[in-house]
Design a protein that fits this description.
Layout (H helix, E strand, L loop, with lengths): L14 E3 L2 H10 L4 E3 L2 E5 L5 E4 L1 E3 L7 H5 L6 H6 L6 H14 L2 H16 L6 H8 L1 H10 L19
Antiparallel strand pairs: 1-5, 2-3, 3-4
Length: about 160
């Protein structure tokens, strides 16, 4: 079986969705591929498939796994996760892993990020969740805060009733 190489135009910095021209080129070059609602599904022949929805420019400073997260998180957020220092860092890692585990959720967050950036807003996954979930933010801020020196601690003697 002859190996087919798919040539794509030079990638733009950051993330971008697949263009209609690229969809047609993939459909012509790869037998068995089919159009999807926002990309192309390419069957591997062993029951698995790739769902191509866009392109991400790889950052040479980051590991391959970290580059995958660039579709829905910022480089700063991903680098922050190399050393977990706070409860917020750990929560961000859990959220990133949950998103990465589901292709549907990855597509959803790629779209949300694109919508944010189209409106001229700066996207970070942390800010997105902070805007969506105030209660969790309040809870986590209490976890990572050291006990306040201005709080009074009253001792209660054991076995006394008043």
């Amino acid at each position: 079986m002859e190996k087919t190489t798919l040539m794509s135009p030079p990638l733009l910095p950051g993330n971008r969705n697949i263009t209609e021209e690229e969809v047609r080129r993939i459909l012509n070059l790869l037998p068995g591929s089919r159009r999807a609602s926002n990309g192309v599904i390419v069957d591997n022949g062993d029951g698995t498939s790739y769902y191509i929805t866009g392109f991400i420019t790889s950052d040479p400073e980051m590991a391959d796994v970290e580059n995958l997260h660039l579709a829905y998180a910022t480089k700063h957020e991903i680098i922050r996760l190399r050393e977990l220092r706070t409860a917020l860092d750990y929560l961000l890692r859990v959220r990133l892993e949950a998103i990465a585990a589901s292709p549907r959720v990855v597509r959803t967050f790629r779209k949300r990020r694109a919508q944010f950036e189209e409106r001229g807003r700066r996207w970070t996954l942390t800010d997105y969740y902070n805007a969506q979930n105030i209660d969790a933010k309040r809870y986590v801020s209490r976890l990572s805060r050291p006990p306040s020196a201005d709080r009074e601690v009253h001792s209660v003697r054991l076995g006394t009733h008043q």
